[in-house]
Design goal:
A 7-stranded mixed sheet has the order 2-1-3-7-6-5-4, with helices on both faces. It has 2 domains: about 250 residues, CorA soluble domain-like (Beta Polymerase, domain 2), CATH 3.30.460.20; about 60 residues, Magnesium transport protein CorA, transmembrane region (Methane Monooxygenase Hydroxylase, Chain G, domain 1), CATH 1.20.58. The protein has 8 helices and 7 strands.
């Protein structure tokens, strides 16, 4: 699907095309062409019409700097990560391609992101704020960073709650729940950090370009400062999560030590009566105690006393 935003005087109109047949892009200045789940025919049409070198899927996913950002005399191409949730509600990064060509912004994406829907509504509602594709890409990065900040704030609150649960067990979470939550928060922070690093690298390179004007550079500089602060926030969150993991591990060790201590004390307390029972369980013919009238109850009493005395001793020592 291809959404084309055309600026006519003071208004911006949106035209949607499901195929490349009967496409007419005349009658105004093209501001933005957004390709969502594009077919090979749509990609080929854009590449031929505007003489663009559109990256393949393999090129989009490469991580080296030359694959994430490159610029020639007429265009700028950026591949950068956007964090999203899949059908299983798991967060992961998806690559979005931005191409700036003679003031036109081309976006190529294979997933739906709320930020693009929001920007499209802003373009239609306030066309005077968007003169060209550079204004658009600056606003897209700005809104996306705001949403990343909201995610980090939410992750920070969840991290704080998790720490309280580990230390004070306020919600009576079992170990499996704590481990699952800890793993989820770590994945979220790592995904956000990778996404922020990638955007920072793209914006830093974009600021060096002589194709963008001063106002756009100012906006991108503010976005870059926000990214740097969010990167620091993710680092703090990761350190807190590492601390929670250490506390959780220590807590498990303490609980295991308590269990082992109880079993050790129980084993030691049962050794004397076991010894007595073993002696009187022997089948020797000449054992004087076998003929005692009170031999059996006496043996039972001795076994009970020999069990209680070690327990009293261990309690006095503070081992129980």
């Amino acid at each position: 699907m291809m959404n084309v935003f055309i600026k006519k005087q003071a208004l911006v109109t949106r035209e949607s095309f499901q195929s490349t047949e009967n496409i007419c892009l005349e009658g105004g200045m093209i501001l933005w062409i957004d390709l969502l789940h594009p077919t090979s025919a749509e990609v080929s049409y854009i590449a031929k019409t505007y003489m663009l070198d559109i990256p393949t899927k393999e090129e989009r996913e490469e991580i080296e700097q030359s694959a994430r950002y490159w610029e020639d005399s007429t265009s700028i191409t950026i591949n950068t990560y956007f964090l999203m949730r899949n059908a299983g509600l798991e967060l992961h990064n998806q690559t979005v391609t931005f191409i700036l060509y003679k003031g036109i912004l081309f976006t190529i994406r294979y997933n739906e992101f709320k930020v693009f829907d929001e920007i499209q509504q802003r373009v239609l509602a306030s066309p005077k704020n968007f003169e060209d594709g550079f204004d658009l890409i600056a606003k897209i990065f700005e809104v996306r960073i705001e949403k990343d900040a909201d995610l980090l704030e939410s992750a920070g609150r969840e991290t704080s709650d998790l720490r309280k649960n580990v230390v004070f067990n306020e919600k009576n979470l079992d170990h499996d729940d704590i481990l699952a939550k800890l793993s989820s928060l770590q994945e979220l922070n790592m995904g956000l950090r990778d996404s922020l690093f990638d955007k920072r690298r793209a914006i830093t390179a974009l600021l060096k370009s002589d194709k963008i004007d001063i106002d756009v550079k100012k906006n991108l500089t503010i976005v870059l400062k926000d990214i740097n602060s969010l990167v620091e926030f993710t680092t703090v969150n990761m350190n807190v999560l590492d601390n929670i993991q250490s506390l959780f591990t220590s807590q498990i060790n303490v609980e295991q030590n308590k269990i082992i201590k109880v079993f050790t004390v129980a084993t030691m307390a049962m050794m004397p009566p076991t010894l007595i029972g073993t002696i009187y369980g022997m089948n020797f013919k000449y054992m004087p105690e076998l003929d005692w009238e009170f031999g059996y109850p006496l043996a039972i009493v001795v076994m009970i006393i020999s069990t209680i005395l070690p327990v009293i001793y261990f309690k006095k020592k503070g081992w129980l």
